[in-house]
């Protein structure tokens, strides 16, 4: 059930007796932009570390332990054209604590403290905390260069989203953006976020809807306008394939490919897209895994993944640098095979079974179920029953997979070449 606490501030309660814990989530939504991605990532770090009344990590941890070992964290993410700053908290169910004690009420009070009383004094974040968290975040971003798989993935996105700086920028921002921020500029942005972001509060667990609503009744948010733009990022197909090669000190070269895919979350062909991806590179029986990795021994790993909010399908491979052209050709052949319907009925059925099993497992995962609920709020077409979901997967035909394959067009190639022997 959904309760409107204020204009563009909504509480969503999902009662279920599946879990012994209750999960609370407060999500701030704003339009995605290069500048604010950095601000929001830094703000998440500042708010997670301490608050005005819990001025250090020790006092914050002590408060959580008094809530019967509650866990708490703040992170950033994005979907399509939206950026999210999310506070998440897990608490024990009130039924499992002494009577007269409400962990839920205490948890709501804790979240209220973190959200409305950050460590801001004289219109700026406490300087020592600010400088520490700023440097920690920049150090984290620098460390990504050492994770060559992540670095290759981000480099590929830079090529694919050449026309959109906001899409190129990771959800955690950039070193350049974070460096510009001051303790006072972040305090000003905090005030803007609190007043202007769209707010969704989600609570899942063995709870009574009316009781949860009473706990959040006077939480503290005010009415706010929210200009709801398009959720999906849509990029036109280009005739030019963007390519980049870098030589770096790695033993294993990496060849990553980005494809334009104009099939979006819960579009007419969305379920066929999931089946297509499972057949192409999503599972161990996929064409990329069996043909590129196993049969021809041309890759240490080969897989594909889909981003249905940004019109993007990617292929990731780890290869010997000398096999670059062979791997490119072989990946293209697998795509052509799917476009021409060269799929066995056994592989098709196995893919469906694996997708359905993944989905059913996700229904037992509290965090996954909460995210599914949030997406149903954002995309009403996604609000279907478990039975309908399974049926739509089972109804996908080889012809549907062929139709999807014709939407997949190569747009970017990133090659990380290992250093050649002297």
UniProtKB/TrEMBL annotation:
Gene3D superfamilies associated with the record: Metalloenzyme, LuxS/M16 peptidase-like (3.30.830.10)
Peptidase M16 C-terminal domain span: 182-352
SUPFAM superfamilies in the record: LuxS/MPP-like metallohydrolase
Pfam families assigned to the protein according to its UniProt record, in alphabetical order: Peptidase_M16_C (PF05193)
Signal peptide: none
Protein's recorded name: Insulinase family protein
The organism of origin for this protein: Candidatus Vagococcus giribetii
């Amino acid at each position: 059930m959904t309760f409107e606490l204020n204009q563009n501030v909504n509480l969503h309660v999902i009662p279920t007796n599946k879990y012994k814990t209750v999960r609370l989530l407060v999500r701030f939504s704003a339009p995605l932009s290069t500048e604010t991605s950095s601000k929001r990532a830094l703000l998440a770090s500042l708010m997670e570390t301490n608050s005005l009344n819990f001025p250090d990590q020790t006092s914050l941890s002590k408060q959580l332990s008094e809530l019967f070992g509650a866990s708490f964290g703040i992170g950033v993410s994005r979907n399509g054209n939206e950026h999210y700053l999310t506070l998440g908290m897990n608490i024990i169910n009130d039924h499992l604590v002494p009577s007269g004690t409400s962990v839920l009420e205490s948890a709501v009070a804790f979240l209220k403290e973190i959200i409305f009383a950050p460590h801001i004094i004289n219109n700026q974040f406490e300087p020592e905390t600010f400088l520490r968290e700023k440097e920690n975040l920049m150090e984290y971003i620098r460390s990504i260069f050492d994770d060559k798989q992540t670095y290759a993935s981000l480099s590929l996105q830079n090529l694919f989203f050449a026309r959109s700086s906001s899409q190129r920028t990771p959800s955690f921002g950039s070193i350049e953006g974070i460096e510009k921020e001051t303790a006072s500029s972040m305090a000003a942005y905090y005030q803007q976020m609190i007043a202007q972001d769209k707010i969704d509060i989600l609570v899942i667990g063995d709870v009574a809807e009316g009781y949860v609503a009473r706990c959040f009744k006077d939480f503290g948010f005010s009415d706010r306008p929210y200009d709801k733009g398009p959720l999906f990022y849509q990029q036109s197909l280009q005739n030019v394939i963007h390519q980049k090669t870098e030589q770096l000190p790695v033993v294993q070269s990496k060849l990553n490919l980005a494809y334009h895919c104009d099939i979006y979350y819960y579009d007419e062909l969305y379920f066929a897209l999931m089946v297509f991806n499972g057949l192409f590179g999503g599972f161990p029986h996929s064409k990329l895994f069996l043909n590129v990795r196993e049969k021809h021994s041309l890759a240490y790993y080969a897989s594909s993944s889909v981003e249905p909010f940004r019109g993007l399908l990617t292929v990731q491979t780890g290869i010997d640098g000398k096999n670059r052209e062979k791997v490119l050709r072989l990946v293209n052949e697998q795509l052509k095979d799917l476009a021409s319907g060269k799929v066995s009925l056994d592989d098709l059925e196995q893919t469906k079974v694996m997708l359905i099993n993944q989905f059913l497992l996700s229904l037992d995962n509290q965090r996954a179920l909460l995210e599914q609920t949030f997406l149903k709020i954002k995309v009403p077409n996604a609000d279907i029953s478990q039975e309908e979901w399974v049926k739509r997967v089972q109804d996908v035909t080889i012809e549907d997979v062929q139709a999807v394959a014709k939407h997949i067009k190569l747009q970017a190639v990133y090659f990380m070449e290992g250093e050649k022997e002297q």
